[in-house]
Design brief:
Blueprint lengths: L3 E6 L12 E7 L10 E2 L8 E2 L1 E3 L12 E6 L1
Antiparallel strand pairs: 1-2, 2-6, 3-4, 5-6
């Protein structure tokens, strides 16, 4: 399965002040495959940035849970 992800911060419709922004979320894959990268677009898909994966890395072949990610923009 392709990696699926969700944004958890900021919430949909939230007012975001000008300046630096932290975007957070989680991602998951299928078949025990590890999430190795999450790309985030802040401009409707014109450009993409690589988010930082957070937390412990799973044992190869045993990645059955989600991975947290964060992007400073």
């Amino acid at each position: 399965l392709p990696v699926q992800s969700a944004i958890t911060h900021p919430r949909p419709g939230a007012a975001v002040p000008a300046g630096e922004l932290t975007v957070k979320g989680y991602a998951w894959s299928g078949g025990g495959r590890e999430v190795v990268r999450v790309d985030v677009s802040l401009d409707g898909g014109r450009t993409w940035r690589v988010a930082r994966l957070a937390g412990e890395r799973p044992v190869p072949g045993r990645a059955w849970a989600w991975a947290l990610w964060e992007l400073q923009a």
